[in-house]
Amino acid sequence: MTPLSDDNPAILIRNLVHRYRRADAVDNLSLTVPAGRCYGLFGRNGAGKTTTIKCLLHLLRPTGGEIKVFGLDPARDEVAVKARIGYVPDQVAFYPWMTVRQTLDYCASFRRRWNDETEATLLAEFRLDAAARTSHLSKGQRTQLALMLAICADPDVLILDEPTSGLDPIVRRELIQTVIGAYQDAEPDRRTVFVSTHLIAEFEGIIDEFTIIDRGREVLTLDADAARQQYQKVHARFASDPSGLDLRGLRVLRRHGRELEIMASGDASEILDRLKAYAPEALAAESLTLEEIFISALRPQETAA
Amino acid sequence: MLFQVNFKSGKPVYLQLVDQVRAAVAAGGLRDGETLPGIRPLAVDIRVNRNTVAKAYAELERQGVIETVGGKGCFIRATASPLKKDARRRLLAESIDAAVVHAHHLQIGKAEFLRLSEERFDALEQKRARAATV
After folding, report:
1. Is the pTM for the entire model greater than 0.95?
2. ipTM of this complex prediction, to 2 decimal places
3. Exposed/middle/buried for A264, CB within 10 Å: 0-12, 13-18, 19+?
4. Which top CATH class is A230-298?
5. CB contact, 8 Å: A184 with chain B?
6. B window 60-119, beta carbon within 8 A of A
7. What pLDDT was estimated at residue B78?
8. Which of A158, A173, A191, A206 to probe the B interface (max B CBs under 10 A)?
9. Inter-chain touch A287–B9, beta carbons under 8 Å
10. What pairing do the DSSP bridges indicate for beta strands B73-76 and B66-69?
């Protein structure tokens, strides 16, 4: 039997391939999620996020590659792996005839641990009526219930697949903050969050590290703070129309009259120095948000001629 | 203490929190013995990961700016910290550095920068004097 060593990363995916008939949904994807981190899997609809997560849970069999959850193989040690995971799928479903209370008890009966305190806190915080039938819950309440079911088992990894899509914007941010906060309140060094989403702005500040995927392939993996340091926007304004500017190799985001906005994906100071030679009236750099980094990573390179 | 996080500054979020506490302590906005908000409430309030807040608090503790008392929270240790002496100068030096860089971008030389600095000092003093007479 494999020891449950916590030196292992929470999630390790190496060269994962999953093919539906002829199309590759996931194409040679590798990523590592250290324990205790909040890790984002960012991609557009259809990029392969859900397929990756389903492979992690052994709900789909990978065509190739390796997956480990705390060092265990989800195919061989299915029960041990699932015991350590809390999962909220992109489409949540409950037995419609059960009440909220019955649904909580029903799910608790499958788990080794159940945190009654977290359950009581979140029921109160969400103002969910325990006696209400699940068929009478709103979309937001259904997501709240699904998130409660996932975290009350005190799992070591919380896997969320597009948890906020379809919810109104106020509920969205509140929900994520409350749930991830409650989950990581205990044992923060161990408790890991793996969340897939295309609504990235809501996770700014929460995500420690992320991988952007497109068409099943990794496009970019970075620590969030490092990403914001690395990806900057340089804004320059000149005294007159800068038609003589040498912009070779620079990626111009916007240009209007005497103003120019340039993307810096690396060392912004180099671009600042180049522009300074033209004596700009104003020159400043600011970081891109994770959402802007995401959009820019998925847009084909367009550099000025 | 009300924290502000700016994701566009390019500075790691935990460092922003560390610097804000240090600046507040140096400026008297936080006094010896006052508490910082708890990790989870602060994380929820400013919408960041609780680990980010925990990292900031650990760094502040390492620097001797705060002290964590189990079950009671994090307390400012202003008198015990080396902040008052150097830190105020260092904090100001950071702002001046930024202004110097800005001046450089705007093609304003050292002499002009220093002259302008003096002008600003005088302007602020006059403003204060006017406010005092009203």
Report:
1. no
2. 0.74
3. buried
4. alpha beta
5. yes
6. 104-107
7. 63
8. A206
9. yes
10. antiparallel
Give the pLDDT score at A100: 97
Its CATH architecture, for the domain B13-76, is Orthogonal Bundle (1.10)
Which tokens hold the place of A48?
């392969």
What digits encode the pLDDT tens for the residues A22-55?
777 999 999 999 999 999 999 998 899 999 999 9
Q: Are B103 and B113 in contact (CB under 8 A)?
A: yes
**What is the domain partition of chain A in residue ranges?**
11-215, 230-298
CATH class, domain A11-215, is alpha beta
Mutation test of the interface with chain B: which of A179, A185, A222, A225, choosing the one with the most B Cβ atoms within 10 A?
Answer: A225
Distance from CA of A114 to the nearest CA of B (A): 22
CB contact under 8 A, B7 and A286: no
- A91 pLDDT tier (thresholds 50, 70, 90): confident
Q: In angstroms, rounded to a whole number, what is the distance separating the alpha carbons of residues B16 and B51? A: 14
In the numeric block, which tokens belong to residue A205? 């500040």
- Interface check B17 vs A, CB under 8 A: no
